[in-house]
Amino acid sequence: ELANAQEELKTWGGKLERRVDEKTQELQTAQQRMILIEKMASLGKLAAVMAHEINNPLAGIATYARLLQKRLVRTTMDPDDFHDASRILKMMESESIRCGDIVRNLLLFSRAPGTGFAAEEIAPILERCIMLVQHKAALQEVKLAIEVADGVRSIVCDAGQMEQMILALVVNAIEATEEDGNVSVSVRHDVDAGGIVLTVTDDGRGIPPENLANIFEPFFSTKEQTYGAGLGLAVVYGIVNRHHGEIDVDSEPGIGTKFIVRLPERQPTETEEVADDLPEITS
Predict the structure, then answer these.
(1) Is 48 exposed, middle or buried (0-12, 13-18, 19+ CB in 10 A)?
(2) Quick one: angle between helices 232-242 and 159-175, nearest 10?
(3) pLDDT one-digit tens code per residue, 117-161
(4) C-alpha neighbours within 13 Å on the C-beta side of residue 46
(5) Lowest CB count within 10 Å: 83, 90, 117, 254, which one?
(6) Angle formed at CA 10 by CA 20 and CA 15, multiple of 5 degrees
(7) Left, alpha or beta for 136 (phi > 0: left; psi -120 to 50: alpha)?
(8) For residues 191, 197, 203 and 209, what is the CA-based torsion angle, rounded to 10 degrees?
(9) How far apart are CA 259 and CA 175, in angstroms?
């Protein structure tokens, strides 16, 4: 009996140790998520304070650059000087517009959730997004495929933000894919939880394992500086968060990347208790 009791104690000790390890891992994951949410909140506060002040001079710079370009056409100038001046003005205009886009993306983090929510069919939104990026895919010689499964229901969402989320994911996938590569976008009904599952898959260069934990952080990017400011996936994360959804990423260097977004059929009301309104990030 004593031997049996000792064996039972060892078994329970092993189970307890495993449970402690599991709970420790869950706590670490929750802590990482809370840190990311705090970063988002801080960025939102900063954006709300500064965005309008920054946007005004940027808009002025872009406007005056266009005005000077028009005047330049009517001016007699050496061809080489004219070419250089025109190139500089175009660069001023494009960089001012790019900075304005960054500020507008930052503003997404300070918007109140729930504005613009309505029942929307996801298929027309997806088709509109594909129309916007199909030329980019064609220029990079990337094959772009779309699939909407039968039984996909309408969901309560902000259509504008849904479009921005899909565009960011698809553009990222195209830019990560080499010539003759493939990018596919699919939508299906979430049988288990209701709502929809949106999947964006590419067979591009993939994401290194050490970067997976940081890809949703603002200004984190593995792309060359000319490709952007690292806000695309941060914006995606903010949109999924506001829609009480979940986002997963599965990536392997040299094989490709898959983003899976799960969105509920409707948004919780103020009187409903939401057990966990933070998107899950798994890799």
Answers:
(1) middle
(2) 150
(3) 889 998 889 988 888 888 888 888 999 999 999 888 889 998 888
(4) 10
(5) 254
(6) 30
(7) alpha
(8) -100
(9) 15
